[in-house]
């Protein structure tokens, strides 16, 4: 098996160019017209941003709906969306718009926010670094993940799912490359309900499920 | 003189310094010039004071130029600065002419340096006019706005926008501070230097000396707010919160700030604070000189709880400083405090003196939470708000601007 090369990453965040969002209807219109990178940023990259620290929901739209639009119904509906369940970002966008349209049909007044509480659409460039570290064998994977930075966990286990042609996390892709003997590791990784973990918890969970196989494979 | 990059490795870990060195390797030999309007004093000079040596250490050809101007020029740029932050300040055609002329005079001496540079970073409005004057420039120019321009006085912004809109990119501290501009707008939050006098570790002897100097009782909990005497920092609201807590718990309060007794507004706020304190011996109102970094550092470390009960705030670096010292922060629910204070994790966001009093009492009744929240806050700052992250962001965006192809991923 070719050794697994551990990488690390960081985000460089920029404004998307869309105007600030001040109410639910504008949120709907901006989500309809924003770039896929902006959509990805607010659903997926948010976990790497400094502001992320165990909020109730895992995407920025749900958090904003709860904290500033003060629409808990909408926050709950948006909060359960798992962006990695969708085959493409356009599917994710369509489902998100469906939720927003449904809510716009229910409310008697369009929820709005005070100045200073607007939603800003952002996007990011992911900068990827070589760490120089390698994993030689699947049995060493759990130990290596235990020492990984949040950036490494994000890049290999989450961001990789957006990379063609495999659209899979890097660990699984590497293990599959090693043949059927790695099947228990692949199944262990697939058992994680990963989207609802913060990165620190995700690292713990990865170590837990892979560490449980030690001696068994 | 700032410390070398290796000095930060023990604090942030080798993964972070390795990232910085990798980007530095890609940018080796790049000629980068920073331009601002003062060599000493103020946040921008402080940033450039550490950034230039670290860029040089990484192999970039970095330099720092300072715009020279007349007193009248700086009066005008102060007005522009205030107008960008929402003050209704008239800047007339004659003023704009002086602004133009001083930039043009400076360009005569800076032309060679600026036109040959690969990257020019122009800080704040004072030197912004250099770009339209510098014909034949070969590099990319970036405008760095250190201030909040989200609600500017429109007539002044209209003129400045026509100037800064010509840049290749701009940098703001937070999305909330930005204005739409026709180029990429990067977001780079500020940072603190963990090795500076204001943030370095302090030994017990120094701490006790400061405690003794101000007559603070080691046996009773201490609340500390560090900020200049400004209404937006709500020091009177902090005293109101203290009084609510004082009825049930034997706390002490320190309100420490720099400040400007020659500033009529600052003097009035200081007088209001003194009056609100009503001679209470457990309220210590300290007017400190601008270089009292060690004293500020010690007071933040002596605190059980750090307060920053602002009603309007920029990024709020005093919050960052308090968190770096392992303290829970009770902060106003505004500006950059929102980015740093997360309820129950790094502190509490509050909107009123009552809210602040409630959270102080909660923490005093759950002393173990003071420690655990403080630890979380320190790690949060270590990960996000130290100068190493700030430097990495600058290097990365320079790379992104030079490549200019808008790639979603850049591999080092």
Structural account:
The complex is a heterodimer of chains A (217) and B (412). Chain A is of the alpha+beta class and 217 residues long. Chain A is built from ten helices and two strands, in the order E-H-H-H-H-H-E-H-H-H-H-H. Chain A folds into two domains: 4-9 and 129-211, no CATH class; 17-120, no CATH class. Chain A is 44% helix and 12% strand. Chain A has a two-stranded antiparallel ribbon. In chain A, helix 3 runs antiparallel to helix 4 (72-79), helix 4 runs antiparallel to helix 5 and helix 8 (170-177) packs antiparallel against helix 9. The model of chain A has no long low-confidence stretch (mean pLDDT 92). Chain B has 412 residues and is α/β, with parallel strands linked by helices. Chain B has helices spanning 5-12, 14-26, 43-57, 71-84, 93-116, 130-133, 154-164, 204-213, 235-246, 264-277, 293-302, 317-324, 337-340, 353-365, 367-384, 387-403, and strands at 31-36, 61-66, 119-123, 140-144, 169-172, 185-187, 222-226, 252-258, 283-288, 305-308, 329-332, 347-350, 409-411. A six-stranded parallel sheet of chain B has the order 2-1-3-4-5-6, with helices on both faces. A six-stranded parallel sheet of chain B has the order 9-8-7-10-11-12, with helices on both faces. In chain B, helix 13 links the parallel strand 11 (329-332) and strand 12 (347-350). In chain B, helix 1 (5-12) packs across helix 2, helix 2 packs parallel to helix 16 and helix 4 (71-84) crosses helix 5. The radius of gyration of chain B is 22 Å and the shape is globular. The interface between A and B is medium-sized, with 30 and 38 residues.
Topology:
The complex is a heterodimer of chains A (217) and B (412).
Chain A: E1 4-15, H1 24-33, H2 36-43, H3 60-67, H4 72-79, H5 89-106, E2 122-135, H6 141-146, H7 150-158, H8 170-177, H9 183-190, H10 199-211
Antiparallel strand pairs in A: 1-2
Helix pairs in contact in A: 1-5, 3-4, 4-5, 8-9
Chain B: H1 5-12, H2 14-26, E1 31-36, H3 43-57, E2 61-66, H4 71-84, H5 93-116, E3 119-123, H6 130-133, E4 140-144, H7 154-164, E5 169-172, E6 185-187, H8 204-213, E7 222-226, H9 235-246, E8 252-258, H10 264-277, E9 283-288, H11 293-302, E10 305-308, H12 317-324, E11 329-332, H13 337-340, E12 347-350, H14 353-365, H15 367-384, H16 387-403, E13 409-411
Parallel strand pairs in B: 1-2, 1-3, 3-4, 4-5, 5-6, 7-8, 7-10, 8-9, 10-11, 11-12
């Amino acid at each position: 098996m070719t050794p697994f090369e551990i990488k690390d990453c960081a985000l460089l965040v920029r404004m998307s160019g869309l105007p600030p969002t001040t109410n639910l209807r504008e949120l709907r219109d901006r989500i309809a017209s924003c770039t896929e990178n902006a959509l990805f940023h607010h659903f997926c990259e948010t976990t790497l941003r400094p502001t992320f620290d165990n909020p109730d929901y895992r995407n920025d739209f749900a958090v904003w709906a709860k904290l500033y639009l003060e629409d808990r119904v909408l926050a709950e509906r948006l909060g359960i969306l798992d962006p990695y369940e969708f085959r493409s970002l356009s599917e994710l966008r369509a489902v998100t718009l469906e939720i927003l349209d449904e809510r716009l049909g229910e409310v008697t007044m369009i929820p709005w926010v005070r100045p200073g509480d607007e939603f800003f659409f952002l996007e990011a460039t992911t900068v990827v670094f070589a760490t120089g570290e390698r994993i030689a064998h699947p049995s060493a994977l759990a130990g290596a993940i235990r020492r990984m930075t949040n950036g490494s966990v994000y890049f290999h286990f989450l961001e990789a799912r957006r990379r063609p042609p495999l659209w899979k996390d890097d660990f699984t892709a590497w293990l599959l490359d090693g043949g059927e003997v790695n099947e228990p590791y692949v199944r262990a990784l697939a058992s994680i309900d990963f989207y609802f973990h913060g990165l620190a918890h995700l690292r713990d969970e990865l170590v837990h499920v892979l560490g449980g196989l030690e001696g068994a494979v | 003189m700032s410390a070398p990059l290796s000095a930060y490795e023990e604090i942030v870990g080798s993964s972070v310094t390795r990232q910085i060195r990798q980007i530095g390797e890609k940018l080796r030999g790049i000629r980068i010039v920073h331009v601002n309007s003062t060599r000493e004093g103020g946040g921008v000079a402080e940033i450039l004071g550490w950034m230039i040596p670290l860029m040089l250490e990484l192999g970039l050809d970095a330099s720092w130029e300072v715009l020279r101007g007349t007193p009248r020029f700086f009066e005008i740029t102060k007005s522009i600065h205030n107008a960008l932050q929402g003050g209704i300040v008239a800047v007339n055609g004659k003023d704009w002419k002086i602004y133009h002329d001083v930039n043009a005079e400076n360009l005569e001496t800076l032309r060679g340096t600026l036109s040959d540079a690969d990257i020019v970073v122009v800080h704040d409005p004072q030197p912004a006019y250099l770009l339209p004057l510098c014909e034949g420039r070969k590099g990319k120019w970036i405008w760095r706005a250190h201030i909040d321009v989200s609600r500017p006085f429109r007539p002044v912004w209209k003129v400045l926008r026509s100037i800064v809109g010509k840049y290749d990119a701009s940098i703001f501290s937070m999305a909330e501070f930005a204005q739409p501009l026709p180029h990429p707008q990067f977001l780079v939050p500020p940072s603190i230097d963990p090795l500076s006098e204001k943030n370095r570790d302090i030994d017990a002897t120094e701490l006790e000396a400061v405690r003794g100097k101000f007559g603070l009782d080691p046996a009773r909990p201490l609340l500390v707010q560090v900020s200049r005497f400004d209404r937006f920092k709500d020091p009177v609201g902090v005293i109101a919160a203290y009084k609510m807590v004082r009825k049930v718990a034997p706390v002490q309060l320190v309100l420490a700030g720099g400040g400007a007794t020659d500033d009529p507004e600052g003097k009035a706020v200081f007088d209001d604070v003194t009056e609100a304190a009503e001679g209470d011996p457990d309220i210590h109102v300290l007017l400190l000189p601008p270089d009292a970094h060690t004293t500020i550092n010690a007071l933040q470390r002596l605190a059980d709880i750090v307060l920053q009960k602002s009603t309007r705030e920029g990024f709020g670096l005093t919050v960052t400083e308090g968190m770096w010292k392992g303290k829970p922060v009770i902060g106003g629910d505004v500006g950059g405090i929102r980015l740093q204070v997360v309820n129950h994790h790094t502190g509490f966001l509050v909107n009123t003196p009552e809210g602040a009093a409630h959270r102080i009492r909660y923490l005093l009744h759950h002393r173990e939470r003071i420690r655990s929240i403080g630890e979380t806050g320190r790690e949060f700052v270590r990960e996000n708000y130290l100068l190493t992250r700030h430097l990495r962001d600058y290097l990365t965006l320079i790379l992104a601007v030079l490549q200019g192809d808008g790639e979603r991923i850049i591999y080092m």
